[in-house]
Amino acid sequence: MKRSDMLQHLDDAGDWDIIIIGGGATGLGAAVDAASRGFKTLLAEQEDFAKGTSSRSTKLVHGGVRYLAQGNIKLVMEALRERGLLLKNAPHISFSSSFIIPAYKWWEKMYYGIGLKIYDIMAGKLSLGSTKIISRKTALELLPTVEKNKLKGGIIYKDGQFDDTRLAINLAQTAAEHGAIVLNYCRVTNIIKEKNKTAGVMVTDLVHQKEYSLKAKVVINATGVFTNSILKMDHAQKADLVTPSQGVHLVLDKKFFPGKDALMIPKTTDGRVLFAVPWHGKVVIGTTDTPLQKIDIEPTATNEEVEFILQNINSYLNSNIVRSDVKSVFAGLRPLVKIKTAKKTALMPRDHTILVSESGLVTITGGKWTTYRRMAKDVVDKAIVQGKLADKKCITEHLKIHGYTIEKSNENIFEYYGADAEEIKKICKEDKSLSALIHPALPYCKASVILAVRNEMATTIEDVLARRTRALFLDARAAIESASEVAVLMAKEMNKNDEWVQQQVDRFTTLAKGYLL
């Protein structure tokens, strides 16, 4: 998957069947769906793939226990099914994990146990395992740092985990393998109209500052929290459809949470659930739900959100986590569909919404990572009708995602790469110096940087350290310290000069400081 090859198709490709605006989970899923059905498909993303919301999740593939408590049975059933399909189609990037709810009152074991048994039953044949009530002794063995005082036992259940951005890159590769053109750093600047109907888009390649006029039978707006801006591009007076909500996560060393199982806190001080999830040798703790008025491509955590997470996690652990223990803090924005009756964003539905404007622009928003495939199917089905395309059936239910392999590597350096681990090993054989780590505190070798540039359309240090690897999210300080090394490796591969190296290091360092407390 090479960006230069993709760009060549824009000059001589002619009209497209489907153009997708947005390269997050929803847009990439739609590109896979459309291309695998045989449609001539183009995806344009103004930043890097999954730069926004889709790289900043809680790293869970789940039905949503709290949605079950809210009575949203339809969403939970759909998500549980999609969870099972994803674990089958991308076992290299997603997997089953055990989650434990500690119980401090006798009735909690029965109450949560029954609820999660229903969760198991709803998953049907795609269930990941049975919920069990565990003793105090077992709970302490599985969660060594959990608060012991008044602990009565716990409930253990199965759910899914994944690496969100690695999946996004794999989806881009899957779409490309089925003939789609997928481009990062290509901003849609206007919607082309013919007789007041959407007929395509104007796109600017931000790397080379070149503009393209691209025609399509149908255009899909899959821009998440930026949905409103595209709708206003279509019709200046269009009312806002999406309201943003911010979720924050803290990343800590495993010493604060040494078990292999995840922790689920069933009710925080604001009524949400909180997770502590082992991930890439660290633990991710989150999340919050804060309504926002302003949308920023690089959102930052507030002191109140950080303190909220620390307060709630410390009430369940005996490790007394403080701000200086945090290796990285990241914030993401959720595109919640506006409803008048919801007073808090935590209560707004996570179901996806599809609408078609008077001009024929198809918009999809809402939803969550777990249901990305179903969202893609639904929006492409709608696009087929709107664009009067051939009625080709969706085939993604059993479509293997790029990197698919059932063989798990025992080496952290190759974790989440799946079949692409062989490419990294090949690069290391060609140049043994590239087998060295980019930083002693990070599980990534120099060859992974080369792979990111050659095969994964990485064009900046941020692309490599935030999304092709997860260095920035795991240890922001170590990522900053490795930036110069990464820039030099990239410059050699991309034929860039010393000035480019310094500009990239300076830019990344400024951005990465926002991930430090």
SSE topology sketch:
Layout: H1 3-12, E1 16-21, H2 25-36, E2 41-44, E3 60-61, H3 65-69, H4 73-89, E4 94-103, H5 106-123, E5 132-134, H6 136-142, E6 153-162, H7 164-177, E7 181-183, E8 186-194, E9 197-205, E10 210-221, H8 227-234, E11 242-253, E12 262-265, E13 274-279, E14 282-286, E15 290-291, H9 303-314, E16 328-337, E17 352-356, E18 362-366, H10 372-387, H11 421-430, H12 446-455, H13 461-468, H14 471-474, H15 476-494, H16 498-512
Helix pairs in contact: 2-7, 2-10, 11-12, 12-15, 15-16
> What general outline do the C-alpha atoms trace?
globular
CATH topology of the largest domain: D-Amino Acid Oxidase, Chain A, domain 2
* Percentage of residues in DSSP E strands: 15-25%
Total count of helical runs of at least 4 residues? 16
- Look at the structure and give the mean pLDDT: 93
Count of DSSP E strands?
Answer: 18
**CATH C-level category of the largest domain:** Alpha Beta
* Class based on secondary structure composition and strand pairing: alpha+beta
Largest sheet: 10 strands, mixed
Question: In total, how many domains does the architecture comprise?
Answer: 3
Distance between the termini: 36 Å
Taking pLDDT < 50 over at least 5 consecutive residues as the criterion, the unreliable ranges are 341-349
Radius of gyration: 23 Å
